[in-house]
Amino acid sequence: MLIRIPVCVAFAAMLSGCGSSADPTSPTSPVGCSAAITIGIFSNGAPASPGQGMVWTSYFQATVLPAQPSVYVVDINSAPAGCLTTWTAVSANTSAVQLSPASGTGRSQVELFMPANTGAQRSTLVTIAGQTASITQAGR
Predict the structure, then answer these.
(1) Would 33 disulfide with which of 27, 73, 83, 121, CB 3.0-4.6 Å?
(2) Coil, strand or helix at 93
(3) What is the pLDDT of residues 6-56, one digit of tens each?
(4) Rounded to 5 degrees, what are φ and ψ at 49?
(5) What domains, with CATH codes, occur in the chain?
(6) What is the DSSP letter of 55?
(7) Which residues neighbour 5 within 8 Å (Cβ) at sequence distance 6 or greater?
(8) From CA 81, how far away is CA 30, in angstroms rounded?
(9) What's the N-to-C CA distance of the chain in angstroms?
(10) Which of left, alpha, beta for 130 (phi over 0: left; psi -120 to 50: alpha)?
(11) Buried b vs exposed e over 86-114: b needs ≥16 C-beta within 10 Å?
C-alpha cells in the first residue's frame, strides 16, 4: 500500500511559508518572494542580442520595435530559489502584443509576439508578474 504524504507535512520543519490556514498541506511561497523579469531571447535567436539580460521594462520603454512581426522571450526569475509565486501576463491590446502563457508559477518564460504593423505607430501596456511596460511598435 502506497501512502502519499504532502511535502509540507513531511518536511514542515524545513520549509518556511509552507501551507496556509485554509489548507496546511498545500505548498506556498516563502515570505519575501519576488520576480526579476529580464529579456531572454530575441526573435533572431542570437545568444548575445543587444539588451539580453536587461530588465524588460527598461528595454521596451526605451525601444521602438520594428513594424515587422517580432517574437521576444521574457524570463521570469523568482527569488529566492523555490518560490512558487503565481504570476500573470496581460496585454492591454492583444492585436498589438500577444502573450503566452497568460499565467504561471515561479520561474518561467513568457513569449511576446507582435504581429506585423501595417498602420501607424502603436503602443500598448503589457503587465508581467505585476511589472508594467509600454511597448511601442513602428508603423509602416
Answers:
(1) 83
(2) coil
(3) 333 333 333 333 333 344 444 444 567 888 888 886 655 444 456 677 888
(4) -65, 145
(5) 34-137 (2.60.40.10)
(6) B
(7) none
(8) 10
(9) 66
(10) left
(11) ebebebeeeebbbbeeeebebbbebebeb
Please state, in angstroms and rounded to a whole number, the distance separating the CA atoms of residues 135 and 45: 20
Please identify which residue in the block is written with the cell numbers 507582435. Answer: 114
Residue for grid cell 501607424: 120
Indicate the helix (H) or strand (E) that contains 49: none
Give the dihedral sign, CA 126/103/108/37.
positive
Residue with cell 539588451: 51
Give the chain's length: 140
Q: Strand 34-42 and strand 70-79: pairing?
A: antiparallel
Residue among 71, 68, 67 nearest 138 (CA): 67
Say if residues 109 and 73 touch (Cβ distance below 8 Å): yes
- The C-alpha cell that represents 107 in the structure block: 520561474
